[in-house]
Amino acid sequence: MSQRMASDNPTQPQGNDPAAAAAAELALVLAAKAGDRAAFGKLAQLYQRQCAAVALRLLGNTHDATELVQDALVKAYKNLDQLQQSERFGPWLMRIVTNLALNFRRGRARRSAISLEQTSGGDSDGDDLRASVEGSELDRPERPLTSAELGDAMQKAIASLPEKQRLALVMFAIEKMPQKDVADVLSCSVEAVKWHVFEARRKLKGMLAEHLG
Amino acid sequence: MKADTQHLEFLISQYVDGSLDGAAKRTLEQQLAVDPAARNILKEYRDLQDVLDDYGNRIPLINWTDFDNKLAARIEKETVGSASRIFWQRWARPVAAAACLLLAASLGYSWHAYKHGSSGDPTIAGAGPATNLPAAKVVRVDGPLADMRVATSPSIRKVTIETPGEVAGNISVAIGSPHEMAPESAIDSAMAGMGGDLSNEARRALRLPTANQPSSVTAGLTTQPRDPFDVP
Predict the structure, then answer these.
(1) A189 in contact with chain B, both atoms CB, cutoff 8 A
(2) Would the pTM count as exceeding 0.80?
(3) Neighbouring C-beta atoms of residue B101, cutoff 10 Å
(4) Partner B, chain A 7-46, Cβ-Cβ below 8 Å
């Protein structure tokens, strides 16, 4: 089922004290850097949902998104020694995810991307939006999409945005990542992130005008 | 005018996010209070963000336990494979280089031995006792001398073979390498004292070696005991 619960937010994984959570996460990163696979497993659990959500928005396909997140996490584990700021594991991992996703999109230019709505409305294998919506009481959405057409149109509109605008919109306006983290991922300033988000919104507003009424 | 609208929309976009602070926020709120167009723009951006939020709240069901298990398996597999690859990346080149050097040295040694072996230290080999024939010119053989092969080189001018026993059988004399010309004196000194004699044909074979015709000749000998067996 598809509703993302508030408790799923991986940016606050360790209770209510952000400082304690950050310290715990840093300890996990350091342990993972020392070769502790279990520690890395916990780190992965902190971020895999958010990574999958971003990958899903960028790829439009759950299977591809989860496979990509697996690739990203394996890559992250193998390159942990290259993480200079251990306290910035999250943005670093997200950069890996977004880079892989962009490469994946470029690589599958001739493949027909299955949109979230197409997947949920089609007869696919169930690893899709609609199947998940109908599949579990636990993850039932708080409110449904306004329409199937709107979800499809949103996916297509987002996919048509320029790269940085798409990434900024997905990570900040949809996945609620902090602007500083988004800036890290995009290697730009916070002001630039704000501008990319604004430009993305402005274009979406034009593309979805008929749906937004 | 267009730039003003764009700037207003930019401010409203940040206002919707709650990231507009201080004086800019107060100024925008004052404008919104008196400007219906600005309020309309704000409504559009809020509606859009509502749709984005709704869109973002929809995450397909993912079996995270299965995901975790697959991830753990992949990390174990790929890091072990990676360690193996790192080992080979680290050692394959040195090992290959060492192997190449060894092979080259071996080939070089073989070639050297082929080129210079028969013109180097002369040897005696055969069914009977065998003795190296170094620069020294005297070869002592304990026991009967029979079926003996004497290898020498053009630099050897005199060969003395000392044996207390009988000399019978085939004595093969190889002088120099197949590509070296045996000096007449060496042939004479090698054969003259053996009690046998070289035919003219055998002598030509020794004097005119070719690649396919080693500069060696076998003379059938049946001699009486002679001590010392001296090749003058």
Answers:
(1) no
(2) no
(3) 10
(4) 37, 40-41, 44-45
